[in-house]
Amino acid sequence: MIYNLLHNIKNQDITYIPENRVTGRLSGHSPCTNWANPKNWPHRHHPIKNANSVGPKPRPAVFLLTFGKQQPQKQSDMNRICKLFGIRYPIIQGGMVWCSGWRLAAAVSQAGGLGLLGAGSMHPETLVEHIRKMKVATNRPWGVNVPLMYPEIDRLMDILIREEVKIVFTSAGSPKKFTPMLHEAGVTVAHVVSSSKFARKCEEAGVDAIVAEGFEAGGHNGREETTTLTLIPQVRRATGLPVVAAGGIGSGEAMLAAMALGAEGVQIGTLFALSAESSASEAFKQRCLALDEGGTMLCLKKLSPTRLVRNGLFDKVAEAEARGANSEELRDILGKAASKRGIFEGDTEQGELEIGQIASSVDAIRPAGDIVRQLVEDFRKAQKDVAAIDF
Amino acid sequence: MIYNLLHNIKNQDITYIPENRVTGRLSGHSPCTNWANPKNWPHRHHPIKNANSVGPKPRPAVFLLTFGKQQPQKQSDMNRICKLFGIRYPIIQGGMVWCSGWRLAAAVSQAGGLGLLGAGSMHPETLVEHIRKMKVATNRPWGVNVPLMYPEIDRLMDILIREEVKIVFTSAGSPKKFTPMLHEAGVTVAHVVSSSKFARKCEEAGVDAIVAEGFEAGGHNGREETTTLTLIPQVRRATGLPVVAAGGIGSGEAMLAAMALGAEGVQIGTLFALSAESSASEAFKQRCLALDEGGTMLCLKKLSPTRLVRNGLFDKVAEAEARGANSEELRDILGKAASKRGIFEGDTEQGELEIGQIASSVDAIRPAGDIVRQLVEDFRKAQKDVAAIDF
Fold this sequence. Notes:
Distance between the termini of chain A: 41 Å
Helix content of chain A: 25-40%
Number of helices of chain A: 15
Largest interface: A-B, 62 and 62 residues
Structural class of chain A: alpha/beta
Shape of chain A: globular
Largest sheet of chain A: 8 strands, parallel
Order of helices and strands of chain A: HHEHEHEHEHEHEEHEHEHHEEHHHH
Oligomer: homodimer
Radius of gyration of chain A: 20 Å
């Protein structure tokens, strides 16, 4: 789900994500390389418009002076993901095709997480619109997810720099080429991987954080099929960079599990794809809510492994794969614009429905801000619960 | 890995697991239905022979009377897996074909976990031998893992009851038929599942605990490909029985992660398959130690989904599957006694090597007791680490 389907992009299957008219003025972010410094946060100068202004204040990443027995909290003790992105909670909303436009990303950032626009399903012009609306909708840090195999990638990068986007998550390609360029423009860069090997390459490329995504994640997926539980400790050992866990994280308890394994933050797709602010169709959301365990499956391994809902289209793919169909035939079965048809237009039987395995745990469409708050609350409770385990 | 390959059993590909001669007398366990009661532990009457007698004492599952501010620990607060099986740590060694004979199981039980004999790769006569040696080797609780599709299952059940085995883990079949019979004989029964649906069926069948095993586990595996991270919370919600997490658990941190998700214990296969006491061949162990991420893959989905090392045999299977080979052809490619050939005899290229995804994290062959101790130590450290997470 984190990057666009190439066959869609190639077919120019990219349109506007419909949204309400935004009347607020555009915010002119001043370039700031250190988001951990509250002085660099733009919120004093850019009042929130058209967005939920309720939300926790980002906690300044500075020494907290306390009295009595408590020790002052050193900056080095702080969660590195929060510090790197200047966010309150180490919760990142995955940039997903057809789901994460400005409304979802803004809601997550407003609630103290990191919202990401999913550039994968946007024409360059559409992306510009969403970026500008984001600047109006929130004064909190946010970013853009960019699949590096995007056909007009150079144009996209120019837009990100020109529009002074501060945080970019790259995926589906090598971070070597663009990371130095983005750094030069003061952008913080994270890259998504599915193995330790690529995590090491990310470190060589100089990225600032790594998202390690397991087999249970929705949409596009690694070839090695390593699950989040087995992947995170290995990526943790392979790199000194802060690691964000992705895939299968659908609760505060799972967030704690990921952090016990060595992640310093989580990237969550499925919960936010099925949130109120997600631009996915209602039909898609309802179909995903009704899923049971086993309702999604990794397929299309001869093209690019992708986790899909087992609907009519999936059945055709599975039947073809069982008899040894080649990649060309599989491409024909998918047809054009399959993920747009499924996720955005709501053709839940013949469209390509990308969602994570954890969808079978989701039972309601909720506002993204509530999801963030619930994650944090459940995480804190889980902290107490595991501390009390005794044997 | 938890149950035998049917094609092996059918071909009577079952032999002795070689072992040292045991000179100690056989222990005559008196039937005891409540292992939580220390009075029922047989160790006073049955001195340890031929086994490492060093190990933590099981903690009695009774009220602990303390003074001062501390509250007495209620029995209801105790870990239910420890209480149910009368063990010190909620760590269960998976009963694995060609790996878990009496020496491995005894070492785990001696260290405070629960050792399981893997009946799947044993002739009934061999199982009797191993049971009798277990009784001599340890006075701690232990059990037997039985795949319910074992061809001589009725004979096997008779043996378990006649030999007064106290704990049985069943798998690969319905627990409905045998659970009442085992209960009548005073046996504690756990059943292995890969979905909430089967967890509910286990509860209906009256089992005492559920092992929920995810996609990352070695050997035979569920059809729904649900990973441990996504499976455990769903099984937790589906049943009130104590849940044991299995699949991908290779460290104390992962053990804590599983327990944060709602498990009350863990079943560990891969680490113990690669331990000093495992009866697998040295060649198998070394091949598994050298695995990288992606070194195992779930295949044979047209037969029974099985996670195998990607060796020469796997390549043949994968090639056949890619061109749509049917189940008969796949069976021919495997040939007879494939897992015995691979795991036990050490044909690491043309044998069937069953091991979990987490093998790529294992870097040394260690005594099983050390593995248990390290798991507990790392679990306790992880408890402190996650309690200290602050954002």
